[in-house]
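User: Run a structure prediction on this.
Assistant: Running it now.
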Amino acid sequence: MAGGLEPHLEALRRELHGPAVLSVLVALLAVAITFLVWRFVQGRRSSRKAVLLLGLCDAGKTLLFARLLSGRYRDTQTSITDSSAVYRVSQDKSTNVTLIDLPGHESLRLQFLERFKAAARAMVFVVDSVAFQREVKDVAEFLYQVLVDSTVLRNAPALLIACNKQDVTMAKSAKLIQQQLEKELNTLRVTRSAAPTSLDGSATGGPAQLGKKGKDFDFSQLPMKVEFVECSARGSKGEEGEADLEGLEKWLVKVA
């Protein structure tokens, strides 16, 4: 009986050592590695729960922050420190993010961004649509510093450019703001060394290329998804009216 099975067992051993089985094992190993990498990336993303509100002074970040949390208007002043609160993006209480309003003053904004950038799942860069034409170079300068930061490049948090104060007649449109920012950022990357430095000024490696080499810069070339939205934290009826934040609120649901 044993002697009769021996040829079959030998054939089975040869099959197990054959190229077909090896191919299956390699494929299974590749699937396992892919799954582990996916779990690692998802784990890192889920640990980043912050949505940072960035921008220059007087862009309307703090009023935007207050409106998102309470819906009510409040008088604000230039912030000298950060403010944070849990924001529930839907009726499902388990779906929330931490909104962090960062100071926009030139002497403070990079310091506070350095502190919170690693925790950012997403960033809202608030632009004063009324003063934009006057401030475009300063806006682009700050945005450039954010986009070439090594941590931001590595984590690639979703980015929303919130074109605020659309209730004012002289406000620039989101389309025009996008075009002007792309033009200014293109100029900045040509005139500067785009090394991926940390926001504290320390170098972290070789040169970073903002966008694609040899092509005019546009936001689609960045590693993170960039969107533009028009909004008004004040609202068309001022203190008594509601804010126009529908586009921003829908975006927050997507990134939560």
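The longest strand covers residues 120-128.
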